[in-house]
Amino acid sequence: AQSVAQPEDQVNVAEGNPLTVKCTYSVSGNPYLFWYVQYPNRGLQFLLKYITGDNLVKGSYGFEAEFNKSQTSFHLKKPSALVSDSALYFCAVRDQERGRDDKIIFGKGTRLHILP
Amino acid sequence: GAGVSQTPSNKVTEKGKYVELRCDPISGHTALYWYRQSLGQGPEFLIYFQGTGAADDSGLPNDRFFAVRPEGSVSTLKIQRTERGDSAVYLCASSSRGGSRNTEAFFGQGTRLTVV
């Protein structure tokens, strides 16, 4: 079965330090991977995606993510965290199962706290 | 419209009642998704439309849940005989070029359903 795992419920980082939010996935074919962010009382906002090509993809607000096929991971990163980055982050993968390949499956989310 | 619009933003209903939740996707988007998000969890897939037809309804939890998209634009999620366990935030998303795997989905603000 296709799945996404976010092993950390919460990540705390001091402002100005680099941050990493972890994501691993399992699909039957080639993965299409996404990161979304959710601020309090707001909808999910798209950050970035990996489809093919360069393993390092860049997205909104200075975030980037690195696709690692051998480790089946797609960790979200940012070189220097801001307090305003504090939010809930979701990793997602497009299901590759035959006949249902347009369904997007989400992880349970990781709450990121940036400490001033 | 500029984004995905969901109405109402909040809905409180009594156990056993019928409710309808509306989603107005981004103009021109052919794909539409419904998800359900409970507190502290990631979005749970319910159903996906391409145009007017449901391409994948495997996430609907039981036959009390039904969704339609009669003209390929606005969609309505219908829940019969509501139960307290149905309480959650119901999210709608749309994407362009339905069926294209590399297209991200854009989300509405959600409808918070509370069954009392």
Give a concise summary:
The complex is a heterodimer of chains A (116) and B (116). Chain A is an all-beta fold and 116 residues long.
Nearest-integer average pLDDT of chain A: 91
Overall helicity of chain A: under 10%
Quote the beta fraction of chain A: over 45%
Q: What oligomeric state best describes the polypeptide chains here? A: heterodimer
Proportion of residues in β-strands of chain B: over 45%
Residues in helix, % of chain B: under 10%
- Total helix count of chain A? 0
Low-confidence stretches of chain B: none
Largest interface: A-B, 24 and 29 residues
Topology of chain B as a string of helices (H) and strands (E):
EEEEEEEEEEE
Count of DSSP strands of chain B = 11
Gyration radius from CA atoms of chain A, angstroms: 14 Å
Distance between the termini of chain A: 41 Å
Structural class of chain A: mainly beta
- Which consecutive residue ranges of chain A, at least 5 long each, have pLDDT under 50? none
Q: Give the number of DSSP strands of chain A.
A: 12
Instruction: Look at the helices and sheets of chain B and give the structural class.
Output: mainly beta
- The dominant shape of chain B is globular
**Rg over CA atoms of chain B:** 13 Å
Mind explaining what this structure looks like?
The complex is a heterodimer of chains A (116) and B (116). Chain A is mostly beta strands. Chain A has no helices and twelve strands. Chain A has strands at 3-5, 10-14, 19-21, 24-26, 33-38, 44-50, 56-58, 64-68, 73-78, 87-94, 104-106, 110-115. In chain A, strands 2, 5, 6, 10, 11 and 12 form a six-stranded mixed β-sheet that branches. In chain A, a hairpin with a 4-residue loop joins strand 8 (64-68) and strand 9 (73-78). The termini of chain A are far apart. Chain B is mainly β and 116 residues long. Chain B contains no helices and eleven strands. In chain B, the strands form two sheets. In chain B, strands 2, 4, 5, 6, 9, 10 and 11 form a seven-stranded mixed β-sheet that branches. In chain B, strands 1-3-8-7 form a four-stranded antiparallel β-sheet, with no helix packed on it. In chain B, strand 4 and strand 5 (44-50) form a beta hairpin. The termini of chain B are far apart. The relative contact order of chain B is 0.33. The mean pLDDT of chain B is 92. At the A-B interface, strand 6 and strand 11 of A face strand 4, strand 5 and strand 10 of B.
